[in-house]
Amino acid sequence: LKPVKIGICGLGTVGGSTYQVLSRETELLSARAGVQLYVSHIGARRDNPHCATADTRVSRDIFDVARDPQVDILVELIGGTTVAKELIETALASGKHVVTANKALIAEFGSELFALADKHGVVIRYEAAVAGGIPIIKALRERLAGNQILWLAGIINGTGNFILTEMKDKGRAFADVLAEAQALGYAEADPTFDVEGIDAAHKLIILAAIAFGMPLEFTRVYTEGISRITPRDVDYAQELGYRIKHLGIAKQSEAGVELRVHPTLIPERRLLANVDGVKNAVMVEGSAVGPTLYYGAGAGGDATASAVVADVIDLARDIAAEQRPQIASLGVAQQNIVAQTIVPMVQVVTPWYVRLEAEDRAGVMAQITALFSDEGISIEALIQKAPSAGESKVPVIVLTNAAAQGRLDAVIAAMDKLESIADEIMCIRVEMLDV
Amino acid sequence: LKPVKIGICGLGTVGGSTYQVLSRETELLSARAGVQLYVSHIGARRDNPHCATADTRVSRDIFDVARDPQVDILVELIGGTTVAKELIETALASGKHVVTANKALIAEFGSELFALADKHGVVIRYEAAVAGGIPIIKALRERLAGNQILWLAGIINGTGNFILTEMKDKGRAFADVLAEAQALGYAEADPTFDVEGIDAAHKLIILAAIAFGMPLEFTRVYTEGISRITPRDVDYAQELGYRIKHLGIAKQSEAGVELRVHPTLIPERRLLANVDGVKNAVMVEGSAVGPTLYYGAGAGGDATASAVVADVIDLARDIAAEQRPQIASLGVAQQNIVAQTIVPMVQVVTPWYVRLEAEDRAGVMAQITALFSDEGISIEALIQKAPSAGESKVPVIVLTNAAAQGRLDAVIAAMDKLESIADEIMCIRVEMLDV
Asked: Which of A103, A138, A203, A279 is catalytic?
């Protein structure tokens, strides 16, 4: 058997780890692939001091790797959506399979790239693009193939989960923990991608596309971050038996598919509620299997390299057998991908956590409960807290039964008109995760 | 493309569900497989009232299915290790791929059957054999292929976990819950397989064989059941911040591989500690990915059918492409399977929970602690409880640091000689699951 030759572009954290895993475990990995694997060409603008690449061909121009006729599999680990896209297009056009960890690229340009791969008779694999080392892509695409996927909900951004965990465990404020996460290197200098939910939305659309056989339409994901969550909300949620997690949720309903990333209260006994720190987890409800959950490291060089290398081994097996990989990029052939109606958020039905500040006098509570009941929303719990020193208004927490956002919006609009209730009202969705 | 024809043998709970999933979701499953799937032949001694098989060929002699030249994939769901083995041998010899949920058969005769499949150029798939609908086989075999597996620990028997959960939540006794589980149909009339750990040992050896590329040597698994666990142990464990779970553990160590099924105290904050009722979960620690966890339904018709159907779809893709499936049964080719040294239990090192009854008088505690220290075992916690009414002896709970079983055995032998300590001493291993 001819060895399978791997080209790695990008030698940063993930690229460096991928190179290390492939070099360190060559024998074991080759036994698993059934063919000798080796890294024949690296493309990187600069060396990585942790990688001894003396015996490997290194090009400063990454496109040299994409055009190298000796390379069977191109591993794209440079990130970004411009040069990376061009690089992958070049590799596909020269008949190479591609493995990538690039969620933004797959989320935004996946449909186009998958079609291009099809055209050239090769495939793109991207296990590492969602939830790092957790094998959620393959699980959804191949192992739950006997199921209609009813819904999935995931903690798919480690930085956001780290921040919420610290707020819960230590009562710290969002901005304070964010600054620490940046100092520790968990969060980027520009944290928007992580804390405003864009990174999670990228991952969610990839999961949804596989789960529902729909196109990768990233812009259709509703995205809400965690920056407005206060330590008080975290505390009140705990008092009520809930945790606040930043979830990506994709759900099949009669009206279509819900695609949403937002902070969410979930019951404290659920496994997802107990996934803390930088860890990720995805829960998937299948029609036959019921609920399943996948947990692990969602980021980090070695964990992500684990997913990259798994994709490389899968491809190497087919290359060695001179077979074309048979599994379509999204689990079903391009011609079977069907656009889905996306449910507008005003129609999405969930229970709600509502925190407001109201005047502490007779009649105000009755006023509040009447507003909810006017919109047909029933109240599961209502708690009035003691006022802070010198405050005339008291915090009131309302936990509702399931109601469409449109109805809650009407309640909030009515509250805005009342002098007895302060302007700032916090609304957070609740998911029971038990259907 | 020619449709792929499936023969199902056995139409009990799992067989019936498999037939239903394949019939109900034909269109979706065929889109995922990229080829039309249909059940062309059923072998069952009797009809299943939940399955409308009027349009399907049904044979009372299951061997008719195994010999049917029209069948591409034989699905063995009759269970047992005699007829099922013969059936699979017949199917392999007539060039059919096989899908099975039969853990006992794979655990006891897998090596022989895999070799036979190799000889005939076909494969045996068995995702459903371990942890029902949880895709742990494929995760281990293909998705963690870039890792050395350091250890895995799983709750892989739902009946046992249901019993322990009821004991914890309701303070009930083992025998009492077992009787209920039998009445509910969770436990077999002969519960030995479940509660004495044999079923878990079957699953553990399958996981270990894949994880470590070793032969399926079922008899080398140390197996200890949960029937001796008392409600008091469950309570004391909780007081100390632990839960008792029945775990299957496979661990790579310098001395070899540890293969063991036994009740285990684990810290209450671990995800595995919060897997309750009939659910299963497996935690796997990989060299690159770190800890990962897979959770879901470990039994039940539909959940198991989910795994069976996933295997069918994988095979159907290759059959349609007229390709030979490239993934070896255990993830590495037969010639790369290497026997491992199994670490004798006396050498296995874990912390211990020890419960004994001692006379409540000066000097006895000192005697007890001296016995541990004589064997070089340090004590993490020692709790003396109030005596029961009319008892002269008091319960004493000792939590030790890590110590080989051989050393603990010496302590227990010394205690047996003391009049101040009652004969019956309960020892349960502790696993921190954090390495």
From this structure: A203
Here the ipTM equals 0.96
Spatial contact of A158 and A280, defined as CB atoms under 8 Å apart: yes
Q: Is a pLDDT exceeding 80 seen at residue B186?
A: no
**Shortest distance, CA B188 to any CA of chain A (angstroms):** 22
Tens of pLDDT, residues B29-67: 999 999 999 999 999 999 999 998 888 999 999 999 999
The reply to whether residue A303 touches residue B288, judged by beta carbons under 8 angstroms, is yes
User: A264 CB contacts (<8 Å, ≥6 apart)?
Assistant: A153, A244, A245, A246, A247, A249, A428, A429, A430, A431
Q: Which residues pair with B423 in a beta bridge?
A: none
CA B66 from chain centre, in angstroms, equals 28
B306 contacts on A by Cβ (under 8 Å): 144, 146-147, 286, 288-289
Q: What positions of B carry a catalytic annotation?
A: 203
For residue A332, list chain B residues with Cβ-Cβ distance below 8 A. Answer: 31-32, 34
Q: Kindly determine whether residue A307 and residue B142, on different chains, have CB atoms separated by under 8 Å.
A: no
**Distance (Å, rounded) from C-alpha B39 to C-alpha B75?**
10
Q: Check if A96 is active-site.
A: no
What DSSP character marks residue A421? B
Query: B333: which 2 tokens?
Result: 């080719």
Answer with the residue of higher pLDDT: B190 or A136.
A136
Q: In B, which residues are within 8 Å of A275 by CB distance?
A: 271
Q: Show the beta-strand stretches assigned E in A319-368.
A: 349-350, 352-359
Q: Which of B289, B313, B322 to mutate to test the interface with A (most CBs of A within 10 A)?
A: B289
Position B150 scores a pLDDT of 97
CB-CB under 8 Å, B135 with A292: yes
Tokens 């009131």 label which residue? Answer: A396
